Amino acid sequence: xxxxxxxxxYKSDKGVEYVVALDESNSELTEIGFRDxxxxxxxxxxxxxxxxxxxVNVLNVATGAQRKLYxxxxxxxxxxxxGVLLLALVANVSGAGALLPFTITSAIGEFxxxxxxxxxxxxxxxxx
Length: 128
What we know:
The protein is mostly beta strands. The chain has one domain. It has 2 helices and 9 strands; from the N terminus they run ββαββββαβββ. A 4-stranded antiparallel β-sheet has the order 6-5-8-7. Strands 2-1-3 form a 3-stranded antiparallel β-sheet. It has a two-stranded antiparallel sheet with strand order 4-9. The protein starts with a strand and ends in a 16-residue tail after the last strand. The relative contact order is 0.21.
């Protein structure tokens, strides 16, 4: 699963697009909703630290292997409907691995931590 990184486009729940770097083999799964980052996307910013991407948890019942796969849009097929994905497990250092069925066990939505808009006065004792 670990491998080279690839820049792809993530679409937030509010419809804003951001550039994220993900494992290439995972980001190229068409059913999880990412699209390739191109030169036309050069004005997109990086995903802010206060936004955590939506994802699905997957499990291979035979081996017990678990993975977290990020989903590029809220309407990605596997985020919405679940099901089974074929993923490669790297069996050795050479990177060779078999495709195994992974069942989606749960879908976790996007999380946005809101910033405190008021001055608490804790640092400089003023409230402006």
